[in-house]
Write a structure and sequence with these properties.
heterodimer; A: alpha+beta; 5 strands; B: alpha/beta; 12 helices; 24% strand
Chain lengths: 95, 420
């Protein structure tokens, strides 16, 4: 299975993950400061800045895209409960 | 008494600008979390321009009759072009459905972040409204309303509305307080200073970073009057209240080690075991350098000053023994008192001595995660009297926390399979 590397910049931890992993599956386990509310892509609590490698995430769904717009999310920000890793190297930090 | 608002009449703030809200003098507890020693008011306003009327905010649903009588005393429903909700909480949006029914020609304006909440409140998929952002406005002919987005004061949707020609700021919950006095104006009502400060401390303080952002928008305005959604209307020296918000949003305590990161080690100990671990954590952090370490026995302190310290600190460590499968109550009391301050993103950790099961440490770690802290360093548990090796682990915990706080923690790479 293809692997990807996700770095949680605020705690200095890089995790090797299989493609298809969502950020939410890893961030809490390494103690990163990304925090969650509804965990269903509605509340925008887990807004996360993609420092680099945003092209290695699956594009946002229509729902995620709408939530990002409603909350005036800046460019290269995603919901950690939704964003799915495809491959390559990605660096993230709490928004 | 002169200046008292009449039971059904509107109160004029300027020709064509009226307060049309409701008084709730018997309320003693607001939204569970706030005491209200003499009740509150739900302030709504009506602004008349040459091209139509705007209603700004409504009232709690059960006060709708009073609100509509006051509104009818200054405007016909057919004249209402715009309804502005500065904040969608039910004490301000409660009369909205009925107002929309009575004024079908009116357009609803809410902040762009309020859209999801509006759906949750009204459950109307076909409700027409205009989401607005800072700079958007409403042209009432000879009067103009402009919106200022002030998110998280104290909900994501909160905004203020500025009436340009009068210099009036309809500020929503910002600069408000729960204080009910029919004399209405700040220079006529009783002493409401404690209510103003109490309201800020409980409603705005958790969002003080957002308060500072909002003040950047508000301070340049040539304010003649602030019309908040609760409490007295601030016509005398309104700028004083803006200045007070800036003071309250600054650090309450001066940190002599301003350039250093700060780590607070809190503990409770029945037999000295968790205390010994706390001292080892503090020693380890101190030895790493670059961090100001403070050690506190929770048993010897009050919650309120600890909350002030925590608000300013960079890292927090909690030591609790496990008694009957739980952390001890004073730890939970402190951890349940932190909703009034913003601690998201701070560094957190836990440790403690236990007899046979040791649940306290993971329970506290989970609570810290729930409070949105980072918890990257696993906690340390010791069965009864900590061994020399376990105290070494505590020193290492303190050292790692200090390294994290000062950005000196070596980057690590792990496989997802290794994460429990």
């Amino acid at each position: 299975m293809p692997k990807a590397k996700v770095t949680f910049q605020d705690v200095g931890v890089t995790v090797t993950v299989p493609a298809g992993t969502r950020l939410i599956e890893v961030s809490e386990k390494v103690g990163a400061g990304i925090t969650y509310g509804c965990r269903e892509g509605e509340c925008c609590t887990c807004l996360t800045r993609i420092v680099s490698g945003h092209e290695h995430l699956a594009p946002p769904s229509v729902l995620e895209d709408q939530v990002l717009k409603d909350n005036l999310a800046p460019r290269h920000h995603r919901l950690a409960c939704q964003a799915q890793v495809l491959g390559g190297e990605i660096v993230v930090k709490p928004a | 008494m002169p200046g008292l608002v009449s039971p059904d009449g509107a109160l004029e703030l300027a020709p064509g600008v009226h307060w049309i809200g409701a008084l709730d003098p018997t309320l003693r507890s607001f939204d569970i979390i706030l005491k209200t020693a003499n009740g509150t008011s739900y302030n709504a306003y009506c602004v008349r321009g040459s091209a139509g009327v705007a209603v700004i905010d409504t009232v709690k649903e059960s006060f709708g009759d009073t609100f509509f009588r006051r509104l009818e005393s200054v405007a016909d429903y057919g004249e209402i072009r715009a309804i502005v909700l500065n904040h969608l909480e039910p004490d301000h949006s409660g009369a909205l459905p009925e107002l929309l029914r009575r004024a079908p020609g009116a357009r609803l304006y809410i902040s762009s972040r309020g859209q999801v909440m509006l759906k949750g409140l009204l459950h109307g998929d076909r409700l027409a409204f205009t989401p607005v952002q800072t700079g958007d406005g409403i042209d009432l002919g000879d009067r103009h309303l402009r919106f200022l987005q002030t998110p998280y004061l104290h909900w994501p949707d909160t905004q203020c509305t500025w009436l340009e020609e009068e210099g009036f700021l309809f500020s929503g919950d910002v600069f408000g307080c729960h204080f009910c006095d029919a004399r209405m104006f700040n220079d006529a009502v009783g002493d409401f200073r404690f209510s103003f400060e109490y309201y800020y401390a409980h409603i705005m303080r958790p969002f003080r970073a957002h308060v500072l952002e909002a003040l950047e928008l508000i301070e340049p305005l040539p304010l003649k009057l602030i019309a908040p959604a609760h409490g007295p209307i601030l016509r005398d020296a309104p700028g004083r209240y803006v200045a007070r918000y800036r003071e309250l949003s600054a650090s309450g305590l001066k940190n002599e080690a301003a350039d250093e990161k700060t780590l607070l080690v809190f503990y409770l100990s029945a037999y000295g075991n968790t205390r010994a671990m706390a001292e080892a954590v503090a020693t380890g952090a101190e030895a790493a350098g670059g961090v100001r370490v403070s050690l506190y026995d929770i048993e010897g302190g009050e919650v309120s000053p600890f909350v002030d310290l925590i608000e300013e600190a960079d890292g927090l460590v909690f030591g609790s023994p496990t008694i009957n499968g739980d952390a001890v109550k004073p730890v939970w009391d402190l951890l349940s008192s932190l909703t009034a301050v913003n601690i998201a993103g701070k560094l957190g950790a836990a440790f403690g001595s236990y007899g046979w099961s040791g649940e306290a440490v993971p329970m506290v770690e989970n609570r810290l995660r729930g409070l949105k802290l980072r918890v990257p360093v696993p906690g340390v548990r010791a069965r009864l009297i900590p061994t020399g090796a376990e105290l070494d682990e505590c020193r290492e915990l303190g050292r790692n926390l200090a390294l994290h706080l000062t950005g000196r923690m070596a980057a690590t790479t792990i496989d997802m399979a290794a994460l429990a």
